[in-house]
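One-letter codes give the sequence; the integers encode the fold. A sample entry reads:
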Amino acid sequence: MFRNVLALLLVCLIVEIGHAQKPARNAEVIAPTTYKAPAIRRSAELQTILANAVGEVLASYSSKGFKPAEVAATVIDLRDPKIFKIADVRGGEHIYPASVVKMFYMAALERQLEDGKVTMTPELQRGLRDMIVDSSNEATQYVFDVITGTSSGAELPKKEFDIWQNKRNRVNRFYSSMGYTNINVNQKTFCEDAYGIEQQSRNYKGENRNALTTNATARLLAEIVTGRMNTPKRTKAMMDLLKRDPFGKAADADDQNNGFTGKLFIDRNIRDAKLWAKAGWTSKTRHDAAYIEMVGGLKFVLVIFTENHAAERDFIPTLAGKLIDKM
């Protein structure tokens, strides 16, 4: 009798473990051997369009104190998905990305899932969804722990910390291997502040905080859209999480459906366009990374980062509208 009970308990334990996350021996995020960096070409025509659009919107917002150094933007024309025609205004500037960085974590996790280095569980699926759709910082912390094999906690002695930080740089190494430059994506996102080893990782004064450029962000979104980052199945999963409905349910004025680029479609009552996006905002920043498909064939990625005007909800949709008009 005792042996039967013991056997039953052992079976239950094995089943339970089967549903848990199984740490891989080497969980490095690796680009597939078939990966080739996209052909990115500067477009003089697109550069003129973007520069004029940014200049006009800045002029119209001058009374609100908007300065050229507080705005960065990048556009990639994807009407020919084989060639990324790009233009930017301050697109190489290092800027704190807020929640836009979560798109980078999503793509890294999907790569690990495809390679079998991470196991999808109902809880991980919930965390991934909440990280992108609801922009939950708590979900992001969990997902980032899974990707990097680290966890928050007390400060560590230098030797142990170096090992921990090396794991935390796993996502940086992934993007660097594909030719992404001038970015830092090795930190969790928080509603308030970081403590313990998280603050130690930031070097206490924020020198190691996350940082992105609008160029790198636009490239990633364009690579997701065109299926370069993963398999068709995983690309669809990412696009499903990024899909936004400007006329759908919105939690508040800062909802990703209608509080950023989506506000343009509401203001103009554009109901036949499609939008995929990941926004980010703090008390000082307001950003959006969007992919737009218009009736007539216009398809483009537009990334806009603004600083020191987080409460200004019209700047991003106004700039997006100017660009659509000119393109």
